[in-house]
Amino acid sequence: GDIDSEHDEL
Amino acid sequence: MNIFRFAGDMTHLISILILLLKIYATKSCAGISLKTQELYALVFLTRYLDLFTDYVSLYNSVMKIVFIASSLAIVWCMRRHPLVRRSYDKDLDTFRHQYVVLACFVLALVLHERFTFQEVFWAFSIYLEAVAILPQLVLLQRSGNVDNLTGQYVLFLGAYRGLYIINWIYRYFTEDHFARWIACVSGLIQTALYADFFYYYYLSRIKQDTIMRL
């Protein structure tokens, strides 16, 4: 998905 | 990815590995709350549902697998390992964590970024991680046993929280869209509860050392 929806933090 | 978040992930992982190695080396889990460890395993299992659907980076995927595996390994050791399970304080570790799970799930149904299966479980895992330390805090107040909760474990746990807060501050000032208020607010509550745990940990530590010296 687009970056801000993607949870890139663990 | 910034250095604070990377260091935060590393210290978080190290704290889990320290606990796992301590339990495995001493074959004892006295003073450790199985309920808190089960909540942590549930946090990782519900947060990383996107493990097979969204690929962020190799680091992200590898770390997700390592966190799930190490937290399940601790739960397995405390439940199944014949020597370790005998030292579990079953009658002291009586915090009703199922109510905490339910409360976090209801909150996630109300407060989330988007009402999708994955997002609701992501918010649930964020809220659950914030309160997962409660059974351990209660057990520590009851048993005062810090044998298996080594100072390094507490140190790395504190470093993990501190570095993540610095990471959020850093991201707030360097990225235009930084709208992760669920993780930030919940993370601050988590850090406050960890500070409470650390306070009782050091009280117990001082009491234990005094008794040893007498």
Descriptive report:
The complex is a heterodimer of chains A (10) and B (214). Chain A has 10 residues and is low in regular secondary structure. Chain A is elongated. In chain A, 10% of the residues are buried. Chain B has 214 residues and is mostly helical. Helix content of chain B is 73%, strand content 0%. Chain B has helices spanning 3-26, 34-47, 58-80, 97-110, 117-131, 134-143, 151-174, 181-213. The model of chain B has no long low-confidence stretch (mean pLDDT 96). At the A-B interface, loops of A face helix 1 and helix 3 of B.
Head-to-tail CA distance between termini of chain A: 17 Å
Helix tally of chain A?
A: 0
Most strands sheet of chain A: none
For the sheet with most strands of chain B, the description reads: none
What's the mean pLDDT score of chain A? 66
**Strand residue content of chain B:** under 5%
Oligomer: heterodimer
Structural class of chain A: little secondary structure
How are helices and strands ordered from N to C of chain B? HHHHHHHH
Measured as a percent range, the helix fraction of chain A is: under 10%
Beta strand % of chain A = under 5%
Coarse morphology of chain B: globular
Describe the structure concisely.
Chain A has 10 residues and is largely without helices or strands.
Keywords:
heterodimer, A: little secondary structure, elongated, B: 214 residues, mainly alpha, 8 helices
Lay out the secondary structure.
The complex is a heterodimer of chains A (10) and B (214).
Chain A: no helix or strand
Chain B: H1 3-26, H2 34-47, H3 58-80, H4 97-110, H5 117-131, H6 134-143, H7 151-174, H8 181-213
Helix pairs in contact in B: 1-3, 1-7, 2-3, 2-5, 4-5, 5-8, 6-8, 7-8
